[in-house]
Each structure stands twice: as C-alpha cells, then as structure tokens.
Design brief:
CATH class: Alpha Beta
Number of strands: 8
Radius of gyration: 15 Å
Strand order of the largest sheet: 1-2-3-4
CATH superfamily: Gcn5-related N-acetyltransferase (GNAT)
Number of helices: 5
Largest sheet: 4 strands, antiparallel
Number of domains: 1
Oligomer: single chain
Distance between the termini: 31 Å
CATH topology: Aminopeptidase
Helix content: 10-25%
Length: 163
C-alpha cells in the first residue's frame, strides 16, 4: 500500500469528524455530531493544543486514517483526561485499510510530533479493543484506577505515554 502521512490542518475538520465516527464506533458523522460527549472531539478543530496527522493514499488522495490530539481546556474534559497539560489521542483507520500498518504509522508520527510540545499523551480505550496491543507496543501504560463503565455500558480505561 502506497500512502503518505502528512500534518493535519484546520481544513481537515471534515476528516476529523469522519474519523471520529470510526473511533467512536458510530455509524454516521451525524450520530457523532448529535452526541455532545463525542462531538467535542472534533468541534472547532484547529484550536490551541490540537495536533494531527493524516494518512492519504498516494494514488487518489483518499484519507485512510487520522491520529489527532486535543488538549482539554477549561471545564470541557475528554474521556481520557489526565491533566490540563496532557492532550488526549484520537485515532482511526478506515476498515478496509486496517492491519496494513497505517495505524502504527499514524501513531508513531503523532507521538513524534507530540514529544516537542507535551509532557505526555493520554487516551481512553474500550477494554475489549484489540488496538490496546498497539498502544502497549508504542509505550502506553494503563492508568490504574481509571476504569469506568462507558456510554455503551462496557468497561473503558485510560492509558498514558510519558516523554
């Protein structure tokens, strides 16, 4: 597979919404937009503390996936919130392009970018999600005591990588 990883820009807001629908296991972007607890991960993309990388197919420029960081400000905290200096990771790859290294490439790139700006990166993940292995290989560790019953009734927990 021939693809390029590029930095995300403010113009990528539609991609953030699309990838958020995959990351949140929702069937449509509209479903995500109608849930404030999810919509905050994409709304006003490009604000202070937002950072992202996009994987694009070189032949047709199709967005294959995206990894993005969002620093939570004021009282608007994400599911993986640790503290005001640590952004939360969102990542998604289109289903047809999973298990081809796209997610690993996106994660490596966003972590490389984050090291220059933040002390750590956090995330929230469903306990039954196989992507946990990728996070662990990349250096993330489970934040013990962070387990919650999430919005769909199963367990999620936070993970962190410190630089």
């Amino acid at each position: 597979m021939n693809y390029t990883i590029r930095p995300a820009t403010v113009a990528d807001q539609p991609i953030v919404w699309e990838m958020l629908s995959y990351a949140a296991h929702e069937s449509t972007v509209e479903s995500v937009k109608n849930q404030p607890c999810l919509a905050r991960y994409a709304r006003n993309w490009g604000r202070f503390g937002d950072l992202g990388s996009v994987a694009q197919n070189n032949s047709d420029q199709l967005c294959l996936g995206m990894a993005w960081l969002r620093l939570w400000l004021d009282q608007d905290k994400g599911f993986g919130y640790i503290d005001d200096t640590i952004p939360e990771l969102g990542i998604a790859v289109l289903p047809d392009y999973r298990d081809h290294g796209v997610g690993t490439s996106l994660l490596n790139k966003i972590l490389e970018m984050a090291k220059n700006q933040f002390p750590a990166v956090s995330l929230s993940v469903r306990a039954n999600n196989p992507v946990i292995r990728l996070y662990e290989r990349s250096g993330f560790t489970k934040v013990f005591g962070s387990e919650i019953i999430n919005r769909i009734g199963i367990t999620s927990f936070n993970m962190i990588i410190e630089f």
